[in-house]
Write a structure and sequence with these properties.
With 89 residues, the protein is mainly alpha-helical. Helix content is 57%, strand content 0%. The chain has five helices and no strands. Helix 2 runs parallel beside helix 5 and helix 3 crosses helix 4.
Length: 89
């Protein structure tokens, strides 16, 4: 049985910042926002909070918690994400 040779797929090493690799305008800020959102998700999960309970603790709408947990961070500044994390801890 003869095996087909797989075509070579070009691979590029990461710079360590996905947002820089993808050409975002402010990659360092985007990475920091993603890291803060990840910490917020971890706290919510660790404390077994519902989205409604997390929203009440952070002082934001349930829809904003949903967006945050889904990684939709465009409407959140770094400062705001830090405030939200502080409100949870």
């Amino acid at each position: 049985m003869i095996k087909k040779q797989e075509p070579d797929i070009p691979v590029t090493s990461s710079s360590g910042n996905l947002f820089a690799d993808l050409g975002f305008a402010e990659p360092e800020e985007e990475l920091a926002k993603a890291q803060l959102a990840s910490h917020i998700r971890q706290v919510i999960k660790r404390r077994r909070l519902t989205q409604a309970a997390a929203a009440a603790l952070m002082g934001i709408d349930h829809t904003n918690v949903s967006a945050l947990l889904k990684g939709r961070l465009g409407s959140f500044s770094l400062d705001r994400l830090l405030q939200l994390l502080t409100a949870l801890d």
